[in-house]
From TrEMBL:
Keywords: Hydrolase, Magnesium, Metal-binding. This is Exodeoxyribonuclease III. Residues 238-268 are annotated as: Disordered. The keyword Metal-binding applies. Its EC number is 3.1.11.2. Residues 240-252 have a biased composition (Basic and acidic residues). Residues 4-254 form the Endonuclease/exonuclease/phosphatase domain. InterPro entries: AP_endonuc_1, Endo/exonu/phosph_ase_sf, Endo/exonuclease/phosphatase, ExoIII-like. GO terms for molecular function: double-stranded DNA 3'-5' DNA exonuclease activity. The keyword Metal-binding applies. It comes from Spongisporangium articulatum.
Length: 268
DNA sequence: ATGGTAGTCGAACTA
């Protein structure tokens, strides 16, 4: 079984690319972020024609998350316990969607950006991650053998080697100590980064800004992650970042990230 | 040099 995550930066602008990528890669579960679509705008039928069940959580103009699965899509949930809201009045931001796919609870997550270090959005980001850590710790406390995947765009580069040049990020979000601490707290709660061991730094980025020729200059960031609960991490047999998908006209600014699992019941 | 590109909708905002 293979699970993938991809910030597509508009599922409608990327429709042909996503369909072609699914045909080419044949993944079982694909989590999407930044779909930038209301539910009625989401191209559900075209994914169903490829054999995937579809869940989408849309609404706002900029965010939106989805799950495509051909190994079942059960107990769909929007948001997690204690997830903070943003805005006054609160805006339905559509940042977290989960379902049980082939025995694994997969969360498609779009962590708040934070914007700048002095913006209230940064505290919202930290609160959001703290709530996710608390919720995740609760799931593992209730069932230490739970197979849970926290996948998506975390908008954090956990290590200096996860950006092309730390000097370019002085005073910026994504690399600050509190953001890295919030990410580390999720890891400490029991969710391991299962992609990094197969894609060691330097240079294995998942995102390259559209401006400044960042991609051809290989100036990117590693901010998209698959974090796995202990029982799921034991099943991981490989992982990759599909850098090829970032190439050419009409690419998202993020590359898909793919994790390969052992068949259930054959772990050990 | 306060830039650059891409997406939403159709001005301004988000990333």
């Amino acid at each position: 079984m293979r699970i993938a995550t991809w910030n597509v930066n508009s599922v409608r602008a990327r429709h042909d690319r996503v369909l072609a990528w699914l045909r080419r890669t044949d993944v079982d579960v694909l989590a999407l972020q930044e779909t930038k679509a209301r539910d009625a705008q989401f191209p559900t039928a075209s994914f169903e024609e490829l054999g995937y069940q579809v869940a989408h959580l849309g609404h706002s103009q900029w965010n939106g998350v989805a799950l495509l699965s051909r190994v079942g899509l059960d107990d769909v949930r929007a948001g997690f316990e204690g997830m903070p809201t943003w805005g006054d009045p609160p805006v339905a931001e559509a940042r977290a969607l989960s379902a049980v796919c082939g025995g694994v609870r997969v969360w498609s997550l779009y962590v708040p950006n934070g914007r700048t270090l002095d913006d209230p959005h940064l505290q919202y980001k930290l609160d959001w991650l703290a709530a996710l850590r608390a919720a995740g710790a609760g799931w593992l406390a209730a069932d230490p053998d739970a197979q849970v995947a926290l996948v998506g765009d975390w908008n954090i580069a956990p290590r200096d080697e996860d950006v092309w040049d730390m000097r370019a990020f002085a005073g910026a979000t994504h690399v600050s100590e509190p953001e890295r601490a919030a990410f580390a707290a999720v890891v400490d709660a029991g969710f391991a980064d299962v992609v990094r061991p197969f894609t060691p730094a330097p240079g294995n980025f998942t995102y390259w800004d559209y401006t400044q020729l960042r991609f051809p200059r290989r100036e990117g960031m590693r901010i998209d992650f698959v974090l796995a609960s202990p029982a799921l991490a034991r099943r991981v047999r490989g992982a990759s970042i599909d850098r090829e998908e970032r190439k050419g006209k009409g690419a998202s600014d993020h590359a898909p990230v793919v994790v390969e699992l052992d068949d259930a019941g054959t772990t050990g």
